[in-house]
Structures are given as structure tokens and as C-alpha cells.
Amino acid sequence: MRSSVFFLIAVLVGAAVFFGARFVHNEYIFFAGFVILQFIVLATAWNILGGYTGYVNFGTAAFFALGAYSTVFIHKLYPLPIPVLILIGGVVSGIVGLGMGYLTLRLRGAFFSIATLALAVVLQTLIVNWTFVGGSRGAYIIRPATAPLIGNYIEYMFLIMLALAIVAITTARVIERSQLGYGFATIRDDEVAAEASGVPTLRLKLIATTISGALMGMAGAPFPYYIGYVEPTSTFGLAYAVNSIAMPMIGGTTSWIGPLIGAILLGTIQQVATVTISSAVNLLIVGLLLVAFVIIAPKGLIGLVQDFRRSRGG
User: Fold this and answer.
1) For the whole model, what pTM was predicted?
2) Widest CA span of the chain, in angstroms?
3) pLDDT digits (tens, 9 = 90+) for 246-271
């Protein structure tokens, strides 16, 4: 019941930001809101594999870039509506996630994490040498002057990312309370024991990598229309890999609420720092907060609250 109320509040906050920004005529709020919502999707997607299943993925930027470059590829062939491009980006990244899982999920621990990092390096090398999508020079995307129904394109982008964030959170919440989620939890707690009990661990892990990769690709698909210019350094940037890990860890990895809280907290701090100080300090802020939470609250904010309630109840 509480989680349902929290979810409803999150949706209402998103709607309030939209109408409030329209009222004050400040387009930067939509730009900043788009980034925060994008990180909500990435953090939630990472948590499905890293938090629920216990397999730490360092290749978030690879799946994000796959979604972005899927849009660039389709745009050069024949421009399509952004919702369609998001679906295509999700399918492409989901297939790559399935393939990556099939090749790497027999590895465990640090070996799996290193393999996902290697995937990002390989994909970046391929994109840099693929001239059709811009190669190392990058590619420009000229978005239309107006958007369907809304009119203002950045408002349209904000609403699309808000809808995508709702889809990602809903997916994570449904998984958490389903047999699939319980299967993921058995792998996270003790994979050897789960296998001995007859749990189809490889199949469940492949499902996790596919869903996680698809959501990351869907987060990246609107990026070219948001920024107007895409190049390998930005799409494969360290910020996506670091934030997608730090946000769930700071919020809490065992619940769908954790990545949401972590993404809103960290994303808002970074946007404020970008305006008041410099965007260069964003990763420094993330690093300091991550170290602090690992020491003070290794279970994240959700775990900290749960421990506090237990201590008061005891």
C-alpha cells in the first residue's frame, strides 16, 4: 500500500513539474527534468540485473549508446516518431543484452563485470569506425520545430521520458512482486544453492539481462533529439555507467523505490551543481556520496530507514 502511494506521488510530482514549468515559462526545467527522468530509467534498468539478481553491470553506457545510435541509424534512413524509435532502441538493446548474457553469464562476480566493461569498449570502437552514423565526428539530428499535440518540442520530450520512467518503474515493481523477482532474489542470495534447488538460473539471468538492456536502450533512444548532436565520447560517457550504479546503491538496491529515490536525489544535485558551479564536479559529487553511503549506509537510504524502524520497534 505504501509503495502504491509513493508511486502515485512520483507521478503527481512529474505532472506538477510539467505544469509548473509551463506556468513560469522556464524551458531549462524541462531540460533538467528530462535528464533526471532519464537517470531514473537507467538506474531502474541497472537495478533489475545488478540489484535484484546480484550481477554488477559496468556496461550501461553501451546499451544507452545502442539506443541512441539506433535512432541515428533509423533517422538517416527514414525519420520516425520518437515513440517508435524508443521501441526500436529497446528491441536492439534487448537483443544485445540477451546475446551478452548468453556469452558472459557463465562468469560470476568481477569476471562478469569486466566482461560487460569490455562490451562497452568493443561497441564504442565499432561506432567510432562506422561512418554511416557519424563515426568519430558524430552526427547531427535536426529535430522538428514543433511536436505532435504539445507544440513545444522540449515539453514533448519531457513527457515522453516521464512516460518511459513510469514504464520502467512499473516493470521493476511488477518483477519485484512476481515469481520472476523471487527467482532473481534466490540468485542474488546464493546462486549455487538456487541451482541445487532446481531454479533455472541461466534462464532467469538471461531474462534479467534482456529486460535491463532493453530499458537502457529505450532511455538512450530519445537522446539524439534531446541534445541535437551525438558522438561516441558523450554517449559512451563515464557519467552514465557511474550514475546508473551509484543511484541504486545510494537509494537501495533491493527495492524498486531505491533507484527512484537515488536518481531523483543525485540527479537534482547534479543539475543544481551544473547551473551554480560546473558540470565538471558532477562525477566528484557522485563519488563522494557513494563513498559516504558505502561507509555509513551500505544498504542505501531504504535500508537505513528500515534499520531505523526496526531499532524503534525493538
Assistant:
1) 0.90
2) 63
3) 899 888 888 888 899 899 988 888 88
